[in-house]
Write a structure and sequence with these properties.
The chain has 227 residues and is an alpha/beta fold. It folds into two domains: 119 residues, D-Maltodextrin-Binding Protein, domain 2 (3-Layer(aba) Sandwich); 90 residues, Periplasmic binding protein-like II (D-Maltodextrin-Binding Protein, domain 2), CATH 3.40.190. Helix content is 34%, strand content 22%. It has eight helices and twelve strands. The strands form three sheets. A five-stranded mixed sheet has the order 5-2-6-1-7, sandwiched between helices. Strand 3 and strand 4 form a beta hairpin. It is globular. The two termini are 20 Å apart.
Length: 227
Amino acid sequence: MLRKTLLATATLSVTLAGVASQAQADGTLDAVKERGYVQCGVTSGVPGFSVPDEQGNWKGLDVDVCRAVAAAALGDASKVKYTPLNAKERFTALASGEIDVLSRVTTWTLTRDTQLGINFAGVNYYDGQGFLVKKDLGLTSVKDLDGATICVQSGTTTELNMADYFRTHGLQHTPVVFDTNEQAATSFDTGRCDAFTTDLSQAYGLRTRMQDPDSVVALPEVISKEP
């Protein structure tokens, strides 16, 4: 199954290019075999999921999925080239054939599954969206963020979930949007925003890179389910 599916999922996602039919999936597999390596789309750097080390070697859960696909398709887990992609670029790169497989933080939604011409083959990680704040603010709930500025990655379900949650609870907020989660986290860390929101697994990974990780805490609410 793995050799023909070339995968997709949500918060950690694997998605295969081509895909309206099995023939298209086979075509992708044939192209991979002819080329001799899998072109795999990953994040631009989320600790634990896909991030290059000091030698430029990619590591993390998403990277391991890419390696598993290469092992199944080519018999060699090392036959992978990685393409870092932000949220806006990921589906375009997949649909255009720039990459064979998307293995990165991507929530599986009905709209994406039915309208983008790609195939979500399964979920490899379940997550939920949360909020990081500076401990010295003394906040104890997301509802304490009424009127706050919140750093968030643009073009994501994270941005939409936040808007829905604040509207439902009658709260005001000002999104400060960035192309990548790394940019959003850094801007929060340097004081541009009152809070930073993303899937909690990513949030904790990015927290390790902040100036003083111990000064940053997660509020208790998890406002979504992210497959």
